[in-house]
Amino acid sequence: MQIEQLIKTAIADALTSLFNINPKTEDILLQKTKKEFVGDYTLVVFPYTKLANLNPEATAEIIGSLLAKNKDLLAGYNVVKGFLNLELNNKIWINHFKINNSNNNYGFKNIDPNQAPVLVEYSSPNTNKPLHLGHIRNNLLGYSIAKILEANGRKVYKVNIVNDRGIHICKSMLAYQLFGNGETPETSNTKGDHLVGKYYVEFDKQFKIEVANLIEQGKTKEEAEKNAPLMLKVQEMLRQWEAGNEQVKKLWETMNSWVYQGFDITYKTLGVNFDKIYYESETYLIGKQKVEEGIAKNVFFKKEDNSVWIDLSKDGLDEKVVMRGDGTSLYITQDIGTSIKRHEEFGFNQMIYVVGNEQDYHFKVLFKILQKFGFDWAKGLYHCSYGMVELPEGKMKSREGTVVDADDLIDEMIKTAQQTTEELGKTDGLDETDKNELYSTIGLGALKYFILKVDPKKKMLFNPAESIDFHGNTGPFIQYTHARIKSILRKNGSFSNEVPEIDLHVKERDLLKLIYEFQQAITDAANNYSPAIIANYVYDLAKEFNQFYHECQILKEENEQIKLFRLQLIQLIAQIIKAAMDLLGAKVPEQM
């Protein structure tokens, strides 16, 4: 029985005895006691003041005094206004530790095979540029959310949709066609996605020159952008692609293959993967077919220019175009097709789209469209909307080439980790292979933790120097804590798993309470799609361990029973730190 349920059952019995009622345990308002007060859990007593015919303080007092008779449950209680703070008997925490001390899967639920799967979509790159810092947050969030949902007992499939067609892809293709001179990744010694990105930036540069010239000739900015020769050419290229033009398709396949090779390297380095990758070029036709069906069913309507729209004004939204007048599709078109294809293949009852908050409106429209088609599973679609990542220098812009490249950032993090680690003397006794692995573990751990510790809904400022610090709320601080514990365990050698009976030190008690909270942290993180809950939990655990380490002897403890208990305690803490960091996609070193 969970500790909270144990307390609620005792409270329910007390309320029955005092007020002759039969309360449901789920109706009892129990919460963790605030840090500034003595206690473990707090009962809100306001609902029972009328029954007691007493003020809140007096009501709390009579409930507390009755509960306190159960010495196996409570060590004491105190009343603060209408709140009853309960301090549990240490045996409660020790018994929980005894049960889970040897549980190698502690905190994790078994996957329920009878439950429909959940899909988590993340990454969703365009094949006209390399991955950048924004993609890093997207990939890390998606991968971590998938792992957390799985830890909470869900069968999860990680999926990716590659936006491999459309006007933006044609921009890099056209620029390469006009200015590339046959350049390849091999001849230029450039990673494939970087090479294609170079021509996406080149298109924007040349396009702006054309727009400026047209404005000088008296055109408005809107007219100039619409009628610039490059824009007309790129629109024609998209039409040719959709018509199956052999030459355009061949160029498209070649440049996309360069990008995929580059993406694969970045994904591997970042430590993320997918169970299935979808391509817009393979799903947009399903979407177009569904749009045609929607016109026949009056879900959509056509405007004079032949473009297809949906009117969602009655749903609190607006009109939204779902297909252009020339018959070419949009993101919304392929998203309709992709979602239908995925449900046919996986039969999911829940699908999480990890996409930035600039697409909030897009997903409101998508979900409404799918619901209007009568798909019951559309009710299980959820947009995990996250804030943008900015640097101290400001916002990034892909078209202008002012993005922070993912590969460059990862390399920089590893180099910074090497410099910091060597300065602190944490590589003594390691050979070059082990050193390089350690630098990578610390650098990537710092990057992942710093990004994931922020609530996904919030915009965040990424500061590489701050993230690599070995002190404070950082990945390296947690990694070093794990390495410190493993060092202690190595020095001691093997020991018994049988938990001894001891009188708890206050710091041991604090650690046992945090150990107990690991499962709830996983559940809360899964329910809120927030790896930040895991990140901040594991930081609190590492911080609490370090306070314990400075106040309590371990290897030098003379009482063998206390020493054994502390070794068992820190062994489970190391296991939890490793498991929690793994949920964030980060590794922890055995030594540093």
Overview in brief:
By secondary structure, the protein is of the alpha/beta class. 55% of the residues lie in helices and 11% in strands.
CATH-level-2 architecture of the largest domain: 3-Layer(aba) Sandwich
How much of the polypeptide forms β-strand, as a percent range?
A: 5-15%
Shape: globular
CATH superfamily of the largest domain: HUPs
Helix content: 40-55%
Q: Indicate the structural class.
A: alpha/beta
Low-confidence stretches: 395-401
Mean pLDDT level: 93
The Cα radius of gyration reads 29 Å
**Alpha-carbon distance between the termini?**
39 Å
CATH class of the largest domain: Alpha Beta
Tally of individual helices:
22
Number of separate domains: 3
Q: Could you name the CATH topology of the largest domain?
A: Rossmann fold
Structure in words:
- There is one protein chain.
- With 592 residues, this protein is an alpha/beta fold.
- It has 3 domains: 3-88, Arginyl tRNA synthetase N-terminal domain (Gyrase A, domain 2); 125-390, Rossmann fold; 406-583, Isoleucyl-tRNA Synthetase, Domain 1, CATH 1.10.730.
- It contains 22 helices and 14 strands.
- It has helices spanning 3-19, 49-52, 56-67, 90-100, 133-151, 167-179, 185-188, 192-216, 221-227, 229-242, 246-270, 280-296, 331-346, 360-372, 406-423, 432-452, 464-467, 475-492, 506-516, 518-528, 531-551, 560-583; strands at residues 30-32, 41-44, 74-80, 83-88, 118-121, 156-162, 276-279, 301-302, 308-311, 319-323, 350-356, 381-386, 389-390, 460-461.
- The strands form 4 sheets. It has a 5-stranded parallel sheet with strand order 7-6-5-11-12, with helices on both faces. Strands 1-2-4-3 form a 4-stranded antiparallel sheet.
